Model the fold of this input.
Amino acid sequence: MQQQLTDAMALDHASELVVDMSKVESMDNAGLVSLMAALNEAKPFYDRLSIYSAPPSIRIVLELTQLDRLFTMVDQEPVPMAA
Done:
């Protein structure tokens, strides 16, 4: 997961990083570490960091670890902005 996020950041030059979690069924410690690493890498390059469509089980994990405070949680797919 961490490598996929890093690769996506290298290709994307938008002002917002959106992580689509709609197909994520569970998240363990490694997933949380990857998400934190991506957050730390992304902060200098993005104005806003969002998690899109996280299922209830993932939202609970993010709330318990207080990572939900570091991301904007969105339920609707963000509309890409024109460059």
Remarks:
- The mean pLDDT is 82.
- The chain has one domain: 2-74.
- The chain has three helices and three strands.
- The CA atoms of residues 17 and 49 lie 5 Å apart.
